[in-house]
Amino acid sequence: DTGVSQNPRHKITKRGQNVTFRCDxxxxxxxxxxxxxxxxxxxxxxxxFQNEAQLEKSRxxxxxxxxxxxxxxxxxxxxxxxxxxxxxxxLCASSDTGYTEAFFGQGTRLTVV
Amino acid sequence: AQKVTxxxxxxxxxxKEDVTLDCVYExxxxxxxxxxxxxxxxxxxxxLIRRNSxxxxxxxxxxxxxxxxxxxxSFNFTITASQVVDSAVYFCxxxxxxxxxxxxxxxxxxxxxxx
Lengths: 113, 115
Prior knowledge:
Structural class of chain A: mainly beta
Helix content of chain A: under 10%
Shape of chain A: globular
Order of helices and strands of chain B: EEEEEEEEEEEE
Helix content of chain B: under 10%
Radius of gyration of chain B: 14 Å
Largest sheet of chain A: 7 strands, mixed
Oligomer: heterodimer
Distance between the termini of chain B: 38 Å
Distance between the termini of chain A: 36 Å
Number of strands of chain A: 11
Order of helices and strands of chain A: EEEEEEEEEEE
Largest sheet of chain B: 6 strands, mixed
Number of helices of chain A: 0
Radius of gyration of chain A: 13 Å
């Protein structure tokens, strides 16, 4: 396994459009996380899944954001009606159990123009 | 309140110098986990170390060493004989046993090693 994979790596979209990102975790990991990172800041937690169940969502995750993890494998993060403030790096990570280290993908950089 | 504080925003050192990156955390949990990650210019966060709250033993891995002190709520990271390849942003993170499973990251310390 080559690690956590995220697609696309870069996305430029016009304000008001919807975007969807995909994350493929390390295959044996049952936990999957989404984080957002803006310039000069550390990653901020958005949500996490254990298998297919979404167990926690941050207050940062507005109604325009939705995440899914069908069948406990890959995950998608959709942002509807994008705003300029959504411009950030979206990071996905996975781990095999709780409280162990998480392994991160290379991220998807979103630019809303 | 910020759970993880990395007071050093940027550090520059000359190659072969030693450098210590500071991390101070805040939690009410008795069981928690501390991490260090490296983020090189390519952007991917690379896991370096995990420590649980019951294990205060310091650890050394090659040129890297970590000093965990519960009495001062600190988990500092030292790079010995720094190299240009060590240039990156380093993040300290906390995960609490009662806080779900999210990682709380500090704001990072940008390290530049000058050849």
